[in-house]
Design a protein that fits this description.
By secondary structure, this protein is an alpha/beta fold.
């Protein structure tokens, strides 16, 4: 009877966890399922199915390190090399990453801030340092431009905006969303590249009004804003994958789902010890409470 319970769909609950709860041996279950096949081969088959299930949930975005962490979360203890081998042999790896294209447009004569961040990509708490950048999204109706604002503490996307224009308004909308959501204190460091959207007088005035201290990358040095650049590489690899969306509305919905539903709340982040940005912030709040 216990084995029959364990034979229910196994994508959500691993065999190891169910066996522990029901007080039975995994090897006995595997023998019952396959009628004499080796426990190892049956376990391997079950592991392949579970990895397939997880990749389906995350739209094939996980490589082997992140997959192993997800398996551990679900009670499945398995080695790094084994996960990597199974994913490689069964074609279960993450989709191929594609080239990233920079969208910075510098304009002469505009105010440029010092590089106060100086590649210090660790923030002591939330709402101390935000980083921002812009990328492009292709649709059949024309280009769209995505601006995001990330909190360096948790790598959480705290604000974002899509626009058909590469002007300052796409940045202003993303920052407005971030401010409304987070209510940051005066003195927050806001780091970006030297694109005209960030060096404009309009943005400088808005940033000053919010109490931001602006910081900017050195000319032509993408490493000075590496966290924002890396985030867009991740987004292009896990979501866009070279796709041309049928409409701007379709692109907007896909990006909303990725940022608000998947990335902030479900995606395991290696920098955060394989917690999600939301979990990491909640853990930080509990520690300081």
């Amino acid at each position: 009877m216990k084995y029959e319970v364990m034979s229910e769909p196994r994508g959500t609950h691993g065999v190891e966890r169910m066996a522990k709860v029901l007080g039975v041996a995994r090897s006995g279950y595997y023998s019952w399922v396959e009628g004499g096949q080796s426990a190892r081969s049956v376990e391997e088959k079950e592991l392949v199915e579970q990895i397939q299930h997880i990749q389906g949930e995350v739209s094939h975005r996980y490589g082997s390190p992140r997959m192993r962490e997800e398996l551990l979360r679900r009670g499945r203890h398995v080695g790094k090399k084994r996960v990597a081998r199974i994913m490689r042999e069964n074609g279960l790896g993450a989709r191929v990453k594609r080239r990233f294209v920079l969208t910075t447009r510098s304009e002469k004569g505009q105010e440029v801030a010092e590089n106060l961040l100086d590649r210090n990509f660790e923030a002591p708490a939330a709402n101390r340092v935000w980083v921002s950048d812009i990328t492009y999204v292709a649709t059949a109706e024309g280009w769209m431009y995505l601006c995001t604002v990330l909190d360096l503490y948790s790598r959480r996307v705290v604000g974002w905006s899509l626009s058909v224009s590469l002007g300052t308004e796409v940045v202003l909308a993303a920052v407005a969303m971030a401010v409304i959501r987070r209510r940051p204190p005066k003195g927050l460091m806001f780091h970006s590249d030297r694109g005209g959207q960030y060096t404009s007088g309009e943005f400088h005035g808005i940033a000053k009004g919010y109490g931001f201290v602006q910081s900017m990358s050195r000319r032509g040095d993408c490493w000075d804003n590496a966290c924002a650049e890396t985030f867009f590489k991740t987004l292009r690899a896990e979501l866009i994958r070279g796709k041309i969306y049928r409409s701007r509305e379709e692109a907007r919905e896909a990006i909303f789902q990725y940022l608000e539903v998947f990335y902030n709340r479900k995606r395991l982040h290696s920098y955060l010890g394989y917690l999600t940005p939301t979990e990491y912030e909640e853990l930080g709040l509990r520690k300081t409470a």
